[in-house]
Design a protein that fits this description.
Largest sheet: 4 strands, parallel
Number of domains: 2
Strand content: 5-15%
């Protein structure tokens, strides 16, 4: 009996070491295993992981997914990629109108708007679909679908080979993951089509009206190809 407990304790310790490798070794040891565990157990282990680091479950999930889908994501040409940017990155007083079909209709011409500059850069790379995802919670009078449904609709509509999403940990855990059940080994699969390889960049904390992100991290993810 004691021998069995030692084995379980050792297995648990090895698992924690593997999951924590990105933080103390700078690299993920078992992305496929970490991705599978976080998809199935992450929400249940949220409180435990939060004692170690806030949103650690989602951080590990995103890191593992980025590694897991890296080859397919890098192989996708820019013309077959979509990028989803949250409306909470817009500066206060943004004058752009919003559409329930196309999201925020950003002209990309405001000189001090980092979001507009990033959209222009994505367009210059040749991205097939660029969306600023609207929020039905922040824009209650616009008759908008929930942001998770908006993203799901667009991936189903376009079936891109790859998609880059910028999102906060809370929204990913509580909205996107529960509503997107078709995420598996091929990415997001819709209508029997080839899956969409996913890549994520997390926002800094949770601020629904004026969020911040590491823009250089987004640019690096946006420009990833097989060559580098």
């Amino acid at each position: 009996m004691e021998y069995g407990l030692y084995i379980l304790a050792l297995a648990g310790l090895l698992l924690l070491l593997a999951l924590g490798a990105p933080f103390w070794l700078g690299r993920m040891l078992c992305p496929a295993l970490t991705f599978a565990l976080m998809r199935r157990l992450g929400s249940g282990l949220h409180r435990f992981f939060s004692f170690i680091k806030p949103d650690l479950d989602i951080i590990l999930l995103v890191k593992a997914a980025n590694r897991y889908y890296a080859r397919d994501y890098r192989a996708a040409p820019f013309s077959e990629r979509a990028i989803f940017l949250p409306v909470c990155l817009c500066p206060r007083g943004c004058p752009a109108p919003v559409s329930k079909e196309d999201g925020l209709l950003c002209a990309g011409q405001c000189p001090d708007c980092s979001l507009g500059r990033l959209r222009r850069e994505a367009a210059a790379l040749g991205y097939g679909w660029i969306y600023v995802v609207p929020s039905s919670q922040l824009m209650k009078n616009e008759n908008l679908p929930p942001s998770s449904q908006f993203i799901k609709n667009k991936i189903t509509q376009h079936a891109p080979r790859a998609a880059l999403g910028v999102i906060c940990a809370w929204h990913l855990r509580n909205r996107l993951l529960p509503s997107h059940k078709k995420i598996g080994s091929k990415g997001y699969v819709s209508g029997g089509k080839k899956g969409t390889a996913l890549y994520g960049v997390l926002l800094r904390g949770r601020n629904c009206r004026q969020a911040s992100v590491d823009w250089e991290e987004v640019r690096t993810a946006m420009a990833l190809t097989e060559k580098g």
